[in-house]
């Protein structure tokens, strides 16, 4: 169900099929892609990344070479949360594939400041995981997501960056408490495109729910040909600070674990929640950064749906 106009004070209603920017929920897509490559024997979660980045090893500090994919996907690699502002500004309008290489090559010659093994939420870690996928498959992360996720799962609304359809919700930026619409044609309507593996996916709410349902089915062992039960459960097993591989896992009460991820580029906000014990998936999004009411709505919806089944 959707409600409201596509822009602040606008007259065009958001369509039920409209696409929504989901920010860091994209990390669950990157992790799933990696796990599929692990299942095919093309990647090893615990191998040092230098094994897959031979072309860059001469310029890479030993701290970076020793990082594993498991650490990248669980935010325990010791990498910074984001790229330095100067590097981000210089690469903001780079094409995604080249931009990832430009950003990382400007960073990985220096030692890590963070301590490996400790949880530190890192978009850069997921960008590096995306680059490894590209080196293995020989295509961009975006192309790999389309061929390995969108097409086989029928998530045909999936795309990247601010949704451009006329009936989609435009993002809204808050400046000094005032919200203004940001046109999807404006480069500032999203984070730099090279951040794709960490958070540039958009898709319809129906497809976002299907994504959650896929993980619900996979962890139940029902779609072994796409994602094995072992891989799905590994993703939903906490490694550090309630974070697994692309998912947050919490057990707030005796009703079983709650699996979720939220996402935002500060112009949209989305939440995807999976309640495995109740075989329930809830997705909520808005085209302005308002996490508190959306989190509250997600909890209220989840509670109402669980109660209606009892």
List the defining traits of the structure above:
single chain; alpha+beta; Beta-lactamase; 37% helix
List the helices and strands and how they pair.
Layout: E1 19-21, H1 26-39, H2 62-65, H3 69-73, H4 85-91, H5 96-107, H6 123-137, H7 141-153, E2 159-160, E3 171-175, E4 178-182, H8 196-199, E5 201-204, H9 205-219, H10 229-235, E6 248-250, E7 258-263, E8 269-275, E9 280-286, H11 291-309
Outline of this structure?
With 310 residues, the chain is of the alpha+beta class. The protein has one domain (22-309): Beta-lactamase (3-Layer(aba) Sandwich). It has helices spanning 26-39, 62-65, 69-73, 85-91, 96-107, 123-137, 141-153, 196-199, 205-219, 229-235, 291-309, and strands at 19-21, 159-160, 171-175, 178-182, 201-204, 248-250, 258-263, 269-275, 280-286.
Write structural notes for this entry.
The protein has helices spanning 26-39, 62-65, 69-73, 85-91, 96-107, 123-137, 141-153, 196-199, 205-219, 229-235, 291-309, and strands at residues 19-21, 159-160, 171-175, 178-182, 201-204, 248-250, 258-263, 269-275, 280-286. It starts with 18 loop residues before the first strand and ends with a helix. It has one domain (22-309): 3-Layer(aba) Sandwich (Beta-lactamase), CATH 3.40.710.10. Strand 6 and strand 7 form a beta hairpin. Helices cover 37% and strands 14% of the residues. By secondary structure, it is an alpha+beta fold.
The CATH topology annotation reads as Beta-lactamase
CA-atom Rg in angstroms: 19 Å
The main pleated sheet reads as: 4 strands, antiparallel
Listing every helix as H and every strand as E from the N terminus to the C terminus, the arrangement reads: EHHHHHHHEEEHEHHEEEEH
Which term fits the overall shape? globular
Q: Tell me the name of the CATH class.
A: Alpha Beta
What share of residues is helical? 25-40%
**Euclidean distance between termini CA atoms:** 24 Å
Oligomer: single chain
Q: Order of strands in the sheet with the most strands? A: 6-7-8-9
Content-based structural category: alpha+beta
Quickly count the helices. Answer: 11
- What's the architecture in CATH terms? 3-Layer(aba) Sandwich
Number of domains: 1
Q: Which regions contain 5 or more consecutive residues with pLDDT less than 50?
A: none
């Amino acid at each position: 169900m959707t409600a409201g106009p596509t822009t602040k004070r606008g007259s065009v209603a958001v369509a039920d099929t409209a696409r929504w920017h989901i920010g860091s929920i994209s990390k669950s897509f990157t992790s799933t892609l990696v796990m599929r490559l692990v299942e095919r024997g093309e990647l090893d979660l615990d191998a040092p990344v230098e094994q897959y980045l031979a072309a860059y090893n001469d310029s890479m500090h030993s701290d970076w070479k020793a990082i594993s994919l498991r650490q990248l996907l669980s935010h325990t690699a010791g990498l910074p949360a984001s790229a330095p502002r100067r590097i981000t500004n210089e690469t903001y309008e780079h094409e995604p594939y080249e931009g990832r290489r430009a950003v990382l090559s400007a960073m990985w010659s220096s030692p890590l400041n963070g301590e490996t093994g400790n949880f530190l939420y890192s978009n850069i870690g997921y960008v590096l995981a995306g680059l490894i996928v590209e080196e293995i498959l020989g295509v961009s992360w975006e192309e790999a997501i389309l061929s390995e996720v969108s097409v086989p799962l029928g998530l045909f609304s999936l795309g990247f960056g601010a949704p451009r359809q006329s009936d989609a919700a435009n993002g809204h930026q808050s400046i000094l408490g005032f919200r203004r619409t940001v046109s999807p044609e404006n480069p500032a309507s999203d984070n730099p495109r090279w951040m794709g593996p960490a958070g540039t996916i958009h898709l319809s709410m129906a497809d976002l729910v299907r994504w959650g349902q896929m993980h619900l089915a996979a962890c139940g062992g029902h779609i072994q040909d796409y994602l094995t039960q072992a891989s799905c459960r590994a993703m939903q097993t906490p490694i550090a600070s309630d974070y697994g591989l692309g998912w947050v896992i919490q057990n707030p009460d005796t009703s079983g674990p709650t699996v979720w991820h939220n996402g935002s580029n500060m112009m949209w906000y989305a939440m995807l929640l999976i309640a495995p014990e109740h075989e329930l998936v809830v997705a909520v999004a808005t085209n302005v950064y308002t996490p508190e009411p959306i989190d509250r709505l997600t909890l209220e919806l989840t509670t109402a749906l669980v109660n209606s089944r009892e």
